[in-house]
Amino acid sequence: MKYHTDNTEKPYIDFSLIFIILFLVAFGLIMVYSTSSYEASMSSVTNNDPAYYLKKQAVASVAGFIFMIVVSFVPYHFWEKMSGIAYVVSAVLIILVLTPLGYEANGARRWLRLGISIQPAEIAKLAMIIFVAGLICKLKDGINTRKGMMFIMAPPAIICLMVWQITDNMSSAIIIFGIAFVMLFIASRDYKKFAIFAVAAAGFAALLVFAITKAADSDKFGFRGARILAWLDPEAYASGKGFQTLQALYAIGSGGFFGKGLGQSIQKQGFLPEAQNDMIFSIICEELGLFGGICIVLLFAFMLWRLMVIANNATDLYGALLVVGVMAHIAIQVVLNIAVVTNTVPNTGISLPFISYGGSSVMFLLIELGLVNSVARKIRF
User: Fold this and answer.
1) In the prediction, which pLDDT does 365 show?
2) Is 198 helix (H, G, I), strand (E, B) or coil?
3) Closest Cα partner for 365 from 351, 377, 349, 376?
4) Pairing of strands 117-118, 108-113
5) For the chain, which residues make up each domain, given as ranges?
6) Contact at 8 Å (CB) between 176 and 162?
7) Are 68 and 369 spatial neighbours (Cβ–Cβ below 8 Å)?
8) Which own/partner pairs from 89-93 qualify as long-range (CB within 8 Å, at least 24 positions apart)?
9) What is the pLDDT of residue 304?
10) How is residue 271 annotated by DSSP?
11) How far, in Å, are 42, 131, 136, 188, 322 from residue 145 at the CA level?
12) Torsions phi, psi of 103, nearest 5?
């Protein structure tokens, strides 16, 4: 479906997308409270407040909606001019994690205290969308050459390396690289190179897994090697790296088709660590059943379809690429999170967009959707 670009007509507003955003954020708040209230009420860290995590998530969500509305009314080509600055700022913020401004939580140093708690990796995802879209537009047909592809992917690779090495956050590094890769794939005419790269990456991953399983001393692969072994045989590591995965699978299995009912989860009562974060999908399946889990997946699929419609009808390449970047971010994160929870891929820290607890994540995702709405406003009926 194509819309005309006659400026005398009204701007396009995708009410379906807005409804999905509101629903997912509201549902996320409900599930954060349902999942975290028991442990929060038993912890001195949260002052025994069962609504501790809900309040923090609600504040971040409100701030995110305010930023989303503001960004929606900013002409999106403004960000094309700011793309280089966005890249530099994201790199500087990642480096600041090493300074006294950075702090550690849950055994990982990934956050900054800048008046509020911010995770630089989330800023890097947004910055990468803005930067890569601008870079592709500048290079134009040059992206179809091998040199052009390397030129486009080199800056994201540097940020990915920084996120991985400085914040020890491989999952965010993978997502950032994936965003840039999908944007380049969509803009390129030559898909053969991407197919070769995908096959090579899959082959390398398979060889790495094989090497870890056959290694006499698996400790040399570090905790990620242990996670791969636990992924292959979680029961054998039930007291270690496989514990969280097993508890998540127990939660999914015990929920049946329609679930135990909202708030009735057993696994969230101290059995599943940090259930409100990366493993919240397993609690959704336990309380709302497979039916509830499928409904959430379908909502995300519908959101991605609406994003695709906006990208397809954008008035120029830069606007289309911004929307494609946001679409890639959400799609990659949803697929990887559900894959981790169901033990389809090795366990790694990836949150479920809009639903998992995490102020930085929900706030910057809403800002990204502000970019999408800014692009949509230029579409005319």
Assistant:
1) 96
2) helix
3) 351
4) antiparallel
5) 15-377
6) no
7) yes
8) 89/123, 89/127, 90/120, 90/123, 90/124, 90/127, 90/128, 90/159, 91/124, 91/158, 91/159, 91/162, 93/118, 93/120, 93/123, 93/124
9) 97
10) T
11) 58, 19, 12, 9, 22
12) -145, 160
Q: What is the pTM of this model?
A: 0.92
SS3 80: helix
**Residue 332: other Cβ atoms inside 10 A:** 21
- Residue by residue, DSSP assigns 150-178 as HHHHHHHHHHHHHHHHHH--HHHHHHHHH
Q: Give the span between the Cα atoms of 96 and 289, in whole angstroms.
A: 42
Look at residue 222 in the predicted model and tell me its pLDDT.
66
Per-residue tokens: 178: 């994936």
Are the CB atoms for 171 and 350 separated by under 8 Å? yes
Separation CA 268–CA 218 (nearest Å): 32
Q: Which residue ranges in the chain fall short of pLDDT 70?
A: 1-9, 216-223, 381
Residue 328 CB coordination number (10 Å): 23
Return the pLDDT at 8.
Answer: 53
**What stretch of H or E contains 208?**
helix 192-214
Q: Which two tokens stand for residue 161?
A: 């390396």
Closest to 336 measured CA to CA, from 162, 149, 106, 179: 179
Instruction: Confirm if 128 and 180 have CB atoms less than 8 A apart.
Output: yes
